């Protein structure tokens, strides 16, 4: 399996607090809520062995939809996922 060559992240305010999102070439790989940016970055670096780069433009559409959803609007949001986990965790997520 080819390792990820890029790892992007962003943050934005929401009704439930500050949200962090991270994205690989394959899709959304991490979400953080109300944590310190430094801690979110450290978690990403440990999981993916690369330094994440902050890029707000890569997430603009998804962040806009997520904000609308968190403000109570009913939406269907589809985004590719690239989640790491044990076999058990992956079964639970499905």
Structural class: alpha+beta
What global shape is seen? Answer: globular
Order of helices and strands: EEEHEHH
Strand content: 15-25%
- Rg, Cα atoms, Å: 14 Å
- The CATH superfamily name is Methylated DNA-protein cysteine methyltransferase domain
| CATH architecture title | 2-Layer Sandwich
Order of strands across the main sheet: 3-2-1-4
Distance between the termini: 22 Å
Note the main sheet.
4 strands, mixed
Fold-level CATH name: Double Stranded RNA Binding Domain
Describe the structure.
The chain has one domain: Methylated DNA-protein cysteine methyltransferase domain (Double Stranded RNA Binding Domain, 2-Layer Sandwich), CATH 3.30.160. The longest helix is centred in the middle third of the chain and has 12 residues, at 37-48. It has 94 residues and is an alpha+beta fold. A 4-stranded mixed beta sheet has the order 3-2-1-4, with helices on one face. The radius of gyration is 14 Å and the shape is globular. A hairpin with a 6-residue loop joins strand 1 (8-12) and strand 2. The chain has helices at 37-48, 60-70, 87-93, and strands at residues 8-12, 19-23, 28-33, 53-54.
